[in-house]
Specification:
Blueprint (H helix, E strand, L loop, with lengths): L3 E6 L6 H12 L7 E6 L2 H10 L5 E4 L16 H6 L4 E4 L2 H6 L4 H13 L3 E6 L3 H5 L3 H12 L5 H4 L2 E5 L13 H19 L1 H5 L3 E4 L7 H6 L5 E4 L6 H13 L4
Parallel strand pairs: 1-2, 1-8, 2-3, 3-4, 4-5, 5-6, 6-7, 7-8
Bound molecules: 2-phosphoglycolic acid (PGA).
């Protein structure tokens, strides 16, 4: 059975006090054994959260640089992330692609560096509105995956998670319909079949992200090829996140 995952991307939000309070609340949630909860707080807060709460919830950074060390002011390397005992790293979020000009080739380097440091990559893909409007979204996402992820060996690929996040749905309140989400998730799984075979594809978790919230999660998570969510805004409020974790628990029988 595929692992169901609910991941919270806190972005550049929350004070330290708020982050500690939210994280503590998350550590107290009831989570079914077959569900994994991961949070991506602002990097600066991570060590405090992990130390204070004894690593009770898996934590990742929202970004890291592929080069091991050197003159990259303001960056942290994958190796430094791994040194801190952090589990995962978010790679290719559309905000990184858009505001920091991260290309598919650069993201491929990040994926490789993450794996070299035993970090799990949560790899984000997704099309802008203009691409969806001309019905080229499947090609666009397929290309992102081929250029940044599908070069991996089967063993390494299984240490990654894909999050499909249509850019037009992120932080906008617009959500992909269940048909739109399922179309893309089924396509992604079929490309994984092509590259890695049916068994790996069947066991691989593909998350949906983009204005996922307590009112639309149950329909999205019920789609056969959606295995949980990467949550932005709704991950900042414990009561909302709790509902999303519970919804993820309900789909474990899928
Ligand atoms: P959102 O963000 O849920 O606020 O749309 C999702 C994300 O950016 O990962």
């Amino acid at each position: 059975m595929r692992k169901k995952i609910v991941a919270g991307n806190w972005k550049m939000n929350l004070s330290l006090v708020e982050a500690v309070e939210l994280y503590q609340g998350i550590t107290e949630l009831t989570v079914a054994p077959q569900v994994e909860v991961v949070v991506f707080p602002p990097s600066l807060f991570i060590d405090r959260l992990m130390t204070q709460f004894l690593h009770r919830i898996k934590v990742g950074t929202q970004n890291a640089h592929p080069v091991t060390s050197g003159a990259f002011t303001g960056e942290i390397s994958m190796q430094q992330v791994a040194d801190m005992g952090i589990d995962a790293v978010l790679i290719g979020h559309s905000e990184r692609r858009q505001y920091f000009n991260e290309t598919n080739e650069f993201l491929r380097q990040k994926v490789d560096a993450a794996l070299a440091n035993n970090l799990r990559s949560f790899f984000c893909c997704g099309e802008p509105l203009k691409v969806r409007e001309v019905n080229d979204h499947l090609n666009f996402v397929k290309n992102q995956l081929h250029e940044s992820l599908f070069h991996l060996s089967a063993e390494d690929f299984q240490k990654t998670v894909i999050a499909y996040e249509p850019i037009w749905a992120i932080g906008t309140g617009l959500t992909a319909s269940t048909e739109q989400a399922e179309e893309m998730h089924a396509a992604i799984r079929s490309w994984i079949v092509d590259v890695y075979g049916a068994t790996i594809a069947e066991n691989y978790s593909i998350l949906y992200g983009g204005s996922c919230n307590p009112s639309n999660a149950s329909a999205l998570f019920a789609c056969p090829n959606v295995d949980g969510g990467l949550i932005g805004g709704a991950a900042l409020k414990l009561s909302d996140f709790e509902i999303l974790v519970a919804e993820t628990t309900w789909i474990t029988s899928k």
